[in-house]
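debug: dumping io for the single-chain case to check the tokenizer round-trip. Nothing else runs in this session.
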Amino acid sequence: MVTLIVSDIYGHTANLDTFANELSGEVVICSPYMSKQPARQKDESLVYEQFVNTIGHDGYMAKVEKSIASHKPDLIIGFSAGAVAAWRALAHLKSNAPKKLIGFYPGQIRNYLHIHPNCPVDLYFPHQESHFELTPVIQTLKKTSWVSCTRTRYSHGFMNALSNHFNKYAYLHYTHLCEQQIVALQQSLKQEQIEVN
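debug: decoded output
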């Protein structure tokens, strides 16, 4: 079983490696950058500027599409811009869709409510977003087949130790939730193999 982690604008960091090491099975990380990023807390506006100048949202979606095609993941876990890049990439995918997408605080999804991935999706939103009203976005997404939305009590960035909004308890809870999803998918894939044989 392969899990593809699609990073946020901070990219592939030591903190993301720590998260990946908590998960069973093969784990691959897709980042908007060519190299691993230093593990230091940066001003988010500067990090966003680096992201836009390096690859941008469309470029990141294209990179995620290539990563999906080459690794054929069973599960995708995306964070922020990475969750939205995965949402968009999966909407374009014609075959070999993963079994599930788990997306954390995908704020830019508000611009892509008209497209839908071809697999089940669990989205975990912050309690609020500073740039837009979340309620209508969640209400629209809840009408979509295969999409589950949860509004958490945490702030955008709660899974990223480099974010000012990191929350250790949320991180532990949702890391465990991701691992439970992997275990359930592994069991499902084993059952499918038994039925085929």
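debug: round-trip ok. Residues 168-196 form the longest helix (29 residues).
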